[in-house]
Design brief:
By secondary structure, the chain is α+β, with helices and mostly antiparallel strands. The chain has helices spanning 15-30, 58-71; strands at residues 2-10, 38-42, 46-54, 78-80. The chain has a four-stranded antiparallel sheet, covered by helices on one side. The longest helix has 16 residues, at 15-30. It is globular. The relative contact order is 0.30. The mean pLDDT is 95.
């Protein structure tokens, strides 16, 4: 069974923050959490990025996301839903 992980990401970012987010999404793929990350518009200022992961790996994924966001001070720009 799979679970959907959703990330709300601000649309307007400075280049340094964009680079961190690209590395973050690459890390999700490199760690085999997902093969592809989808996105849709979410209100005027945000995108909703989402992907599915095996339910048994949900904690591992959310721990990785939380750690990455904290280490790279992305909490104002990326929100784990």
């Amino acid at each position: 069974m799979n679970t959907t992980i959703r990330l709300r990401i601000r649309k307007e970012l400075d280049p340094a923050i964009e680079k961190k987010i690209i590395r973050f999404k690459g890390g999700l793929i490199a760690r085999n959490f997902t093969d592809i990350i989808y996105f849709d518009e979410d209100q005027e200022d945000f995108y909703m990025h989402y992907f599915t992961v095996e339910t048994s790996r949900k904690k591992e994924v959310t721990d990785y996301i939380t750690q990455y966001l904290n280490e790279n001070t992305l909490g104002e720009n990326v929100i784990l839903m």
